[in-house]
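Chapter summary example.
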Amino acid sequence: MRNVTDLNFPLCLAPMVGLSHVALRRLISDYMPQNASTHWPTEMLNSRRVPGENLKTTPETLRRDEEVYLVPQILGNEEIPIQKAVQRLVNEWGASGIDINMGCPVQKALKHNYGVSLMGDVNYAAQVVAMTKKVSTVPVSVKLRAVGSEKSVPQLITFVQQLVDSGADWITLHPRTAAQKRRGQSDWSQIAELKKAVKIPIIGNGDIQTADDVVLMINETGADKVMAGRALAARPWMMWQLGEKLGFASAAHLHGRRAPHTPVEEGAEYGRSLLKLIEYSEESFMQVAGASESLTLRKMQFYIRTTHVWLEFGHTLMAMCSRAQNLSDLKIQVACFFEHEQAMYPRTELRQ
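The structure predicted for these 352 residues follows.
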């Protein structure tokens, strides 16, 4: 894969801790239109840990044989761990690209000078890109946030240009500063300015909750592609909806009905997809990786806690599922909740 513009579908999933795992990728891929291709993330991987992990059984690096265009995201700032992690991910695991995290604002990353901390020193950040590029035989991308100052756009362009000069093949920009975290509105104009200023592909990220948002961001910013996180996790059929808008043929298994669009149709689809995600998680984490049922249950409960906010009575679903003691009980609670008609909001505050 030379870069993301080689792939024909304009939406991809964001790398999210605890969410962008093999089971969720499988669920979202079920809704991909025929002949559509996009790249897929992993959860954030610590470059210090990857060299010593069993990549076939570690939950964060589980993958299906059928998966293609996987671009794992790594967190790191030291040459030797980056070198060893990249070599294993590319040569043993089959990565199609490597994504460097420079956007994570959580304290755990900041104290190790990972994530968005790297944006505080452009030379250091450029060195991390160069370290990665030096050992990678696949494209290298960087996911970053906005630069926080009155002259944020010129600073951002200067920063990104140094990453490009160090070998970055594409950039994903979430135009909120580290201080904003998830508050406020993302500044899409920064994506547009960056796209005009640099010659490599730019992926836009931030405030994407519907298929219409994807089209709007591309039209407003000129971004080569759009990335969505929690909203795509909650609404995996966004791929299906977008495919219909863009004229792609529906996925073969979905023939016979159009994508869900009304609040009630989407509420029913959430219930169907949630039961399928439980099944996929059980198969991947317990049957393939040999993980415990309690770990798999925690993953599902985390997914529900993250995505329930798009359901009108999602707090009730979350309360019911948080009491589940095992996966069988979880399935019963989900089925019980969705026996009654449910509806989804098109958007919600992305602050939780």
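To summarize the output: Residues 105-116 have pLDDT under 50 and may be disordered.
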